[in-house]
Write a structure and sequence with these properties.
The protein contains 13 helices and nine strands. The protein is an alpha/beta fold and 299 residues long. It is globular, with a radius of gyration of 18 Å. It binds S-adenosylmethionine.
Length: 299
Amino acid sequence: MNNFLKKKFEFKNGIFSFDIIDEKTKKVTEFYNEKPFPNYKDNDNKQTILNKGDKNILANQFKKFIGYKKNVLEVGCGTGQLSNYFAIGTNNNIVGLDPTMASLNLAKEFANNNKITNIQFVNADIFDDVLNDDSFHFIWTNGVLHHTKDPYGAFEILIKSLKKNGYVLVGLYNKFGRIRTILRRYIFKIFGRKIIEKIDPTLRNLKLDENEKVAWIRDQYIHPLESLHTFDEVLKWFKIHNIEFVSSIPSSDFDYDYEDIFEKKSQGTFFSRILNQFLMIFNSFGADGGLFVLIGRKK
Ligand SMILES: C[S@@+](CC[C@H](N)C(=O)[O-])C[C@H]1O[C@@H](n2cnc3c(N)ncnc32)[C@H](O)[C@@H]1O
């Protein structure tokens, strides 16, 4: 895919690169440069990344829905596991953007080693607004905007590059859903890693290797910049930018139907949304860090 960048770039190790200037973004990139997230296992290859992606209900449905010959942007792609997953076995054009060079180097290395050619990486801060307008059919940004100085400002910039009728998926930490993690963060500060390994469901349940554990602990408990959000906040962002609500996870209404995330669902009422966010404290959404996801379509 050509012509998706509107500003002058340098080409470093096969990555389109821009200087990272903003102090807050620099602080965040220093954090991830130390330990890129999410990390690859030593034996990861096309098949393992494909299996991992297929097991992720959201990523799997997203990839199927994209279809073929589409332009897809992942904002805050980190080490590009998902971007690479979206690219594998398709003729879509995938662009992964992230300000952390160490992460992108791993992303690019994986793509090169596995001969994934329909993918390009951009080393940039979203706030530097380097992407051309109306370029992408799909934008995925999960677990990213809440690590920026101004999540709405970042959304406002990225949404310009979405084409009409294109879909955007935004995943953010929830004000209610993250309460358990915040409590665990205090416990981590006082008692350290041993206790956290016992009480954090992700660390307890998954067969993570040491690198993955360290990356998760850093990301959840010692991140330098993080904010919390609500459904209604993102709905407001959608409204301002003419984005029609498609669905959310957890549900905004009482349907709890996640079989087809691109099928238009009810956005419920203020009450149903508050209740479903409150319930995150007690269900698996709150156990795993409190992320919620909204999907919208540009009108
Ligand atoms: C928690 S990681 C999420 C990585 C990936 N999206 C995932 O779900 O595994 C957050 C990512 O956001 C990126 N990020 C932080 N600030 C950013 C900014 N201003 N513009 C674009 N990406 C940013 C970080 O470099 C990091 O890779």
